[in-house]
Amino acid sequence: MGDYSSIELAMERFSLPLLEWYRSVRRDLPWRRSRNPYHIWISEIMLQQTRVETVIPYYNRFMELFPTVDRLAEAPEEQVLKAWEGLGYYSRARNLQTAAREVVEQYGGTLPDTLEGVSGLRGIGPYTAGAILSIAYNKPEPAVDGNVMRVLSRYMELEEDIAKPATRIGIEKLAKALIPEGAAGDFNQALMELGATICTPKAAHCLPCPVMEHCGARLAGRVDELPVKAKAKPPRPERRAVALIEGTGGNAGCILVRQRPGDGLLARLWELPHVQLPQPALAEGPGAGDGTRTGLASGRGAARKRAQALAAAADSEAAASAHGRAMGELAAQLAEEAGIAVVPGAWLMSAEHIFSHIRWDMDVYRCRLAASSLPGGAGSAIAAEGAAGYNGSAIAAEGTAGYNESAIAAEGAAGYNESAMAAEGEAGYNGSAMAAEGAAGYNGSAIAAEGAAGDDLTVRPPAGADAGAAFPGNYLHGMPRQDGLPPAYRWIRLEEMDEYAFPNVFLRILNAYKAALCHQPGRIQIEADASDVSFPL
Description:
alpha/beta, four-stranded mixed sheet, three-stranded antiparallel sheet, 21 helices, 41% helix
């Protein structure tokens, strides 16, 4: 590590060259064209764990819809969530709107310019507070994200684990001391820019680095070793069966969707009905015995491997048996939870969705409702059949009326994976996961709650409500219950998808299905590489 006994020497060798470099090469990004604290705030929240290229169109559209704090505060929540759809981490959008209302009520619609004031807003932690105060108000506050911790750890050859809170606090103090007078906003953005474009997690580009001459890690040959960071525990896998239920008769051309509960994981978003398969099925489900189940445990690439294996083995007896068990469990659980009798017909695709602590390994089945599927109908019979285990050949026979000719061989065509979240710092802005920003402790906001293990996915009306009353989300949004359907369930046409906010994985499944129908209405066929649907939280 170099001699930085005086802050003057550090300024001369690091801060000033970095600042000069940034002002000559900085990228032209829409949020950099303004010092408006609202614009800075929105951009910083969107950029958490998300690539710059992904954020730009979302930011522009969000600013068109909600150009001021007041407009955001007054907007219906569903409109905000729909504008956020595809970015993931939906608690960020909810916290934004909550904080916007706090700004309107407590500060007259203008973000406060003090650390105490801005830190007191919902969902704003140390990094976001520092970014707003330095960039919008030029206050000498540090904004330390993964990029900044990586740059300073390498330059100063720091040995401490950046995953530890104490290390972060120490780097925040160092970053604040390095801020040149009167240039807080540009300096903080320079650190982020260097980490995003030059001092990247892998294959750092040392030659064009403006501060390489005195970089401790480069001089010691340790660029690839630093920063020190303990590996996070991998998410727990859960296997899920998803029902893509097509309407018939008066509901022909519709898909059955449901709204999630008002609190917890992916609160109030819409989804396809799905169930968690029991643990024994995890080892014996589709892909078991042919080498693909091992691949599932690796996480990234799992959906692709499973889709390819299942498509290749679609006609095999083992695959039919495995799918039969999964479809039986799907029908049984939906009958028990919602009182609907689902008749699965064929496997469509595989998908993967990653939270912080959970990974959903999902198989999607094309289904229809039995004629007597509504409450009081054949639900118990379906449940009994599912408990005993569906027979693969029986399902094939059941599905011959239009179901056995359809096969989506992979999850979506090329183009549905472009908004996947970036790994730490890859061509990003804020770089590493700033999970601490939303963790409990920053005014109770919990981005991590979206991925908390063990969330109850059972559909229930609110406590104390009439059994036939609307779902919690419908209470909030005034959406009436559709005749004959359980609470939270609705038939929608594919062209109505724009009116509902879906988690990314279900949006992509529906888009793939929609594209296939448009391509060949009488026969669903997608021939493209399967892709992961990965959103670490």
